[in-house]
Amino acid sequence: MKKALKSFFSSLRFKLSASDSFLFTGYYKRFYNPKPGTLESTLSAYSKKVGETFTVVQVGANDGINHDPIHKFIKRDRWNGVLLEPQKYVFDQFLSKLYKNHPNLSVLNAAMGAENGEATIYKIGFSEARWATGLTTFDRPTLEKAFTSGHVQRKCTKDNTSIPTDESKHIVEEKVRIISSASLLKEYNISKVDLLMIDTEGFDYEIIKFFQIEINAPQMIIFEHSHLSEVDYTECINHLKNNGYDVKKDGPNTAAIKSELNEYPDYFNQ
Questions:
Q1: Burial grade of 220 (CB within 10 A; 0-12, 13-18, 19 or more)
Q2: 109: which of 70, 91, 146, 182 fits an S-S bond (Cβ 3.0–4.6 Å)?
Q3: What predicted TM-score, i.e. pTM, was given to this entire model?
């Protein structure tokens, strides 16, 4: 019963958002009030400050709504930009439908890389539930670790599904389009990026390097660090600081903002 109700409300929320229902957008315009000093509060204030020109590049958008900290702001403030999601099923069934009424926001069935081309992603082979698609990665060992740590088993138990005895069905491959940051910005005529949002299951630091932040200089960067090694995370933080960013670790994510634009000391200087 609980699972059915959760599925119903998740579906209803998606439909309200996709249709830009006043029930959905109106709530975030009139009643939404994030807790001061949080990442959501900072994003909300930043979005309102920039206004209708706010531009985002999101790498690893998944379905665009579940566990997505920027979805409400894209809808509320009508952001511009490009959202990338390499998984074709997720892209076709969710992301492309969610933003079909946003002419200034493009969705792209692709991943980011150093050069244009094609690459392989690794994904759960026996489920297309949100928890499963959220584990998709370029780094196979990261996904294998999700099995050995018991994370997949816990999700399956909660979801009332079973892991196949045939191990060849545990992890499958999918070929995806790769686009470089230079090609992306040129193709979509993007001259400035207010937010680079990354969630790529252990590949986040690579995306930061691929995006060439020393050249393209996104004003703010948010990425998931929970799958990065301590060495890679330290190197990533040093790379950000060397390129003029103030940095804040926040749960599974890290946020960075250009130091000269940092008007949010209640968040970044905690």
A1: buried
A2: 91
A3: 0.92
